[in-house]
Amino acid sequence: MTQWKSKLSLAESSRLGDGRVGSKLKLGLFSYPVLQAADILVHRATHVPVGHDQQQHIEFARECVTNFNHAYGPHLVQPEIIISPVRRVMSLTEPTSKMSKSHPLERSRILLTDNAETIHAKISSALTDSVPGISYDIDTRPGISNLLDIFSIFNSEGKTAAQLATDFSDASPRELKAAVAEAVIKGMDGIGQRYQNLLEDTKYLDHVAAEGGEKARQSADETMHLVREAMGL
């Protein structure tokens, strides 16, 4: 696994023995994949939806299954990876980085709880470029391409980002932003209000949490019984 290098902003050629690397390392960088694998395997999940940046974590979980089953018998399930066909949504302020809730700028991301006015303002301030017209090119026009990707997700006609770029080829970035904002606002209509309604219904949330917790305990107990029996513990 190499993701710890990007987390520490290190070159791919970096090695654990390097002094500069060792001073930055934290246990969480290595324990997190183990905990994630345990969460998946203890419930014998068959399919796990993840983003591209999490794919190697699932590969690690699959390797754990291979090693355990080879030593103790076919008790754990090999989880299959489900990768969304939708491209990663990138930051509105830094379109070469993925959209993240941890980014210091709130206008870099669209939240499910954002109202229509906020969504429109964030998309209107999205970073683009000064090249005339609209075209889809992730490498040379990341800002415009990101808006087109977002547009394609919410486009009611199911058009791809490239097709939308053709439709808006003579438009200005401002006109594209207006169309994207309208599509996103329409697509997310009601989600924020539903979220607030659920947040206020604490009795229902407590019930769901308790019911889910009980199901999780039963599932984990069944797996751990198989594991302990296989290992003779």
TrEMBL record:
InterPro entries: aa-tRNA-synth_Ic, Rossmann-like_a/b/a_fold, Trp-tRNA-ligase, Trp-tRNA_synthetase. It is found in: Mitochondrion. One of its GO terms (molecular function) is ATP binding. Its EC number is 6.1.1.2. Transmembrane segments: none annotated. It comes from the Eukaryota. One of its GO terms (biological process) is mitochondrial tryptophanyl-tRNA aminoacylation. Gene3D superfamilies: HUPs, Tyrosyl-Transfer RNA Synthetase. Keywords: Aminoacyl-tRNA synthetase, ATP-binding, Ligase, Nucleotide-binding, Protein biosynthesis. It is an enzyme of class 6 (ligase). GO terms for cellular component: mitochondrial matrix. Its main location: mitochondrion. Belongs to the class-I aminoacyl-tRNA synthetase family. PANTHER family: TRYPTOPHAN--TRNA LIGASE, MITOCHONDRIAL. This is tryptophan--tRNA ligase. It comes from Cordyceps javanica. The lineage of its organism: Eukaryota, Fungi, Dikarya, Ascomycota, Pezizomycotina.
